Amino acid sequence: MNKLFQLCFIVVLSVLLSACSSKAQVVGPLQEVNGQSFYFHTVEKGQTLYAISKIYKCDVNSIASANPGADISLKEGQIIKIPRDASGIAKGKTIVRNNKSYISHTVDKRETLYSIAKLYNVDINLLVENNPGSENGIKKGQEILIPIPSATNAETNSDKNFHQHEVVAGETLFALSRQYKVSVEAIKSANPGMQESLSVGQKINIPVKALPNDHSIAPITETTPTVSTPVVIIGGEKKEKYTAAVLLPFFSQTPDSLMTERDRTFRDAAINLYRGIQMAADTLQNKGLNATIYVKDVVDGKSSIKAALTDKGVSKADLFIGPGFKDPIQELSIFSQKTGAHIVVPFPLSNKVLLSSPNMSKACPSEATVWEAMGGEIAKTFSSDYVVLINSTDLEDTRKVQVFAQSYWAERKDSVLTLKYSGQGSFTELTSKLSKTKRNIVVLPSKDKKAIYAVFEAIKNTNSIVIGPESWENLETITADNRNKYQVSYPNTIYLDYNSEKNIEWMEAYRKRFKTEPTEFSVLGYDLFLYYGTGLLFYGKDFPNHFSELKVQGLQGTGFDFFRTGNESGFENKFYHLLQTSDFSIQRIR
């Protein structure tokens, strides 16, 4: 009888646990912004975008789109928006009654008012207020209205902890943070759902504890960078001999007639990358590195990487270069965490591959990372010029504009003038804002051909330099005359100077060995293996903890300046060249 009772208890308990876990609890309050509902989540220490996406059962891309820059870095205490429509938790129909927005929740079996309040992270008294009679009990199938407060503007706030500021023309979040000596993050936290761009007449809550007249508050100082937790390395001691595995998409098993254009692009990149690696291996051998290199054809899909790892030489590698696709990279990441081998991502992929992979690094920086670095660099390089930043209607452009402006502010302690091209017609606003006495530095991080054309029309016959993205390198929309007249400049992670003696010598050696011209990927392969191989030579497998100390001579066309994207995540390279058109030729100015 006792055994039967125990068995029944276990069955009942498992059913209850299953019922309790069928709905995830919302951990952030729900609010409405411009007609769309969001959960407002406060980032906890060490939380990544991937971890937050799991909490809300929401795709990482949806969260990143709602929070430009969040896929680059998150800070403890930062508030981010989770689109309710994209979330897999607490689903219910959104309705509007008496000009107020609600979620219509249908009561399920065993649910109580308390459990619903907890599910949606709302005060139970608020539920009672909006659902008369619910205080006497609710039943299955009953409709419960969950109020969604509006977060478009700060409400009139009599709380002594806040001062209310009404936005005037030209004000930005950066300007307000200067005026009131509080961080932008503190202002955002006091105004959940607030957008980066402010509207005239908008009311903003400013934390009182740092108002200008409060002399008891110490002035804001530069924050000390957070020291990242060292990467845990398995078998980090130096060895006499190392093994590297090159896992690239050579498509050796795919007939040429069946290859797509994308396949051919990756194949050509892989071949040239490997040729550069071979040359670097010879250079490092002369410097004392004893290394065996295994080469495997790893295409997209997990089966390809699993097959490669059955090779004993590959499975014991100290360094992996590749694969070139997300799925095999993630599979290799799981494997390498058992061996302590470092993974190098050689192709320009999303930073998502670095999530939960602390012993991985991306050799090619993302566009957002480059534009963040450029913000500070342009603030320094063109400190005596008049800088104008142009946004477009494209979401990706907005993200680049935001990180550029933040970095510019951090360097110059002043906001950059930001204008937005509407996507229609001429851009007379830009013409009217240009300086008549200073040189204008017009920054447009966009591929939008209409925006590009409008900007060049707006700056006609002015003293201006135009800076755009890497994609402008071969863009036919920009004429040769305009490139030269306005010294069109753009960032590039790889640049081979054909006038440099060291580059000329290296290119001659490459041509002699492979009977062909080197490409950018040939240069990247050489520099990449020279850099990481030198790391093995000096520090063994522990080299990721010495990236800041690793200075390598002899790189041909790129550089390496790594930073940790998060304590649980890997490293991203933020190095770039700034190239400029001058006398109808390209020159490196940074």
**Which descriptor suits the 3D outline?**
globular
CATH class category name of the largest domain = Alpha Beta
Structural class: alpha/beta
CATH topology of the largest domain: Rossmann fold
CATH architecture verdict of the largest domain: 3-Layer(aba) Sandwich
Q: Helix count?
A: 18
As for the number of domains, it is 4
Quote the distance from N terminus to C terminus. Answer: 82 Å
What are the low-pLDDT stretches, counting only 5+ consecutive residues below 50? 1-23, 152-159, 210-227
Explained architecture:
The protein is α/β, with parallel strands linked by helices and 590 residues long. The chain folds into four domains: 30-148, Membrane-bound Lytic Murein Transglycosylase D, Chain A (Roll); 162-210, Roll (Membrane-bound Lytic Murein Transglycosylase D, Chain A); 242-361 and 500-559, Response regulator (Rossmann fold); 368-492, Rossmann fold. Helices cover 35% and strands 18% of the residues. It has 18 helices and 22 strands. It has helices at residues 2-21, 49-55, 60-66, 113-120, 124-130, 173-180, 184-190, 261-287, 302-308, 312-315, 326-339, 367-381, 395-412, 428-433, 449-458, 480-485, 501-514, 520-539, and strands at 30-33, 36-42, 79-83, 93-97, 100-106, 143-148, 162-166, 203-207, 242-248, 291-297, 319-321, 342-345, 360-362, 386-391, 417-420, 440-443, 464-467, 489-492, 562-564, 571-573, 577-582, 585-588. A seven-stranded mixed β-sheet has the order 10-9-11-12-13-20-19, sandwiched between helices. Helix 8 crosses helix 18 (520-539), helix 9 (302-308) packs parallel to helix 11 (326-339) and helix 12 runs parallel beside helix 13 (395-412). The longest helix is centred in the middle third of the chain and has 27 residues, at 261-287. Mean pLDDT is 83; it is low at 1-23, 152-159 and 210-227.
